[in-house]
Amino acid sequence: MTPHARDAQIRDSGHHLDSTTRRPSRALTRALTAATALALVVGPGAGAAIAAPVSPTAPDGTPSSGTPWTAAAALPTQQLSPAAPAAPARSSAPGTTLPQQSAPLTEAQRAATVVTKGTDLAALKKEQGANGAFLGQSVKGRASGGGPARTQSGTNSNTAGKSILSYTIPSGGVLGMDVSGWQQNVNWSTAWNQGSRFAYVKSSEGNAKINDYFGQQYNGAAAMGMIRGAYHFALPGVTSGASQADAFIASGGGWSGDGKTLPPLLDVEYNPYSAIAGGNVCFGLSGPQMVSWIKDFSNRMQARTGRAPAIYTTTDWWSKCTGNSTAFGDNPLHLAAYSSWVGPMPASWSTFSIWQFSSTGPFVGDSNQWNGSYAQLQTFARGAVVPPVPPAVVKPAPAPKPKPAPSGPSIKSAADVVAADSGGTLWNYPAVDGKTALSGRYRIGSGWASARSVTVIDWNNDGYFDLLAQWRSGIVTMYTGKPTGGFNTPRILFTGGMAGAQLTVGYWIASSASPQILSRNTDGTVTLWRYTDGGYVYNAGTIGRGWNGLDMTMVDFDGDGYQDILARRGNGDLALYRGNGRGSFVGEARRVVGWGWNAITALSITSGFATDGSTGINARRTDGTLQHYPLSGRGGWGTRTQIGNGGWNPMLIAGGETIRAN
Fold first, then answer.
1. Of 467, 534, 539, which is closest to residue 501 (Cα–Cα)?
2. Nearest alpha carbon to residue 327 among 318, 335, 336
3. How does pLDDT run across 141-158, given as a tens digit for each residue?
4. How far apart are CA 402 and CA 198, in angstroms?
5. According to its UniProt record, which protein family does this protein belong to (predicted)?
6. Half-sphere exposure of residue 287, counting CA atoms within 13 Å on the CB side?
7. Does domain 107-382 have CATH number 3.30.70.100?
8. What CATH number was assigned to the domain covering residues 9-89+412-657?
9. Residue 78: how many CB atoms within 10 A of its CB?
10. Is 0.70 surpassed by the pTM of this model?
11. What are the residue numbers of the active site?
């Protein structure tokens, strides 16, 4: 179609939203992906004077917003299915490498962690009863507003008389369960038929075995074919971590690298007993004392079994009772969060190994999800790392060979414009601080002629910008940036299947420490792809349908701290699809925030270009000029500036892909 002759128009709602929200301790990555991250798009856009904002007409209701990524909804009918990526150097789920044992506590240090020697053991025993506490006991009480209890039949009841909580089964991963003496005779066949493939069984609490059904539960799960393991309910401060580890092992809490035994699990959570430190949630221990106690337990377990324990906890308890310690990143994380999404991670971890998502079903006891495939769960159980398998794919030819910038990292600012010319040379155009302008370019790579899109983003959160490359062959690779310039050997994220997809990248899940990819597929579905700590990207569900013909750009348009999607329609309207920060869209009529954008052939997001902390869109027009449209941070626009004269049409600009003018 003939490009629309008039200039792109913008619409401003004028309503104020807080635009100062930032990801804690992620200033660089948040600055880069306050929208999407820079993606390579061809050439800059033109610019005439912008007309006064026009009142938007009521936008149509399509495309549909789809369902949240966490719901167990059906995947798209013609979903793109990229081949599984090559196995990385470690398993994709966290905690599969064996941590180095830290120095054992001295006797004086160990003694300092036992601060409740005056505990009335008789009163404690009375509170414990026959079965004691269980995984998530105090978590359930806090979630429901009352103190939880278990009936002897194993069903969940609540002493406050609350109704049974609903639950959402997350998509992906592998489902499992955990049980204790409260469940008694578990019907493992039923659990298997419901989808459970692994189980944790309580064996001990404090310095005693508290589960008369441990043997039959542990062996019953194994006989059904489940990968199983034992867990210990910690009573920190009553006795030392080492002595409770010894009691755990004596009660069945050992480990074997047979691929059928999960690592020992340490349950540290809110104190459920008034007999211990008057019910203090941290068992009367300070943050440093709690950290020392957990280290003492972990060291003893590793020394005696050869495997460091996984740690079960909640983000809130970890913050309150360990001072948000970062010392346990090598211990796998089993996180409790009764919600449709897992929420923020405790400070020691960037992601979880196992998520306890429900105490009310589908399984008896509690329900969990392993963060990976079944094969990866087996690797996790073995405690070994499977050697990487060379991918059976043809690499792009010629392979890009990025060259270092004059000094320091190749890409120094989220405001820089990165673009590849028609010959495949990759250039960086540095932004001039506070000038809303670009300075002289320099070469940072070659061999990029066959790229469909490129995104600049700090993918691994190391403070240096990386390159995510989508090739016309359908392969997607990641080049991590070096602090001295240049890029490391690429890692393949998708071995194929992405040739027809349009990608946009950013923090669609606001709580995640790692960015996500949204792909608009050839069947019109939009898929959320999440990144695991081990390097895999996995399908986290469909978040939209009916997106054929729409061009997507991810950006926090309204300044609420959550990423949104700006969708360019075929008629040139720019529609706003606000994200809720949890993986799906806000249910509302779609506001049109601009018109006349059918003359635009490239859209990319930039951060800090106009002022520190600012966000804007660089748009290339059909006349080859590059325009900068700043966002107001309140759901509107600032004054446009032309930052590039004609001549950008042959360029693939970072921040998206070359899009067709309508």
1. 539
2. 318
3. 444 333 333 332 333 332
4. 45
5. Belongs to the glycosyl hydrolase 25 family.
6. 10
7. no
8. 2.120.10
9. 11
10. no
11. 178, 267, 269
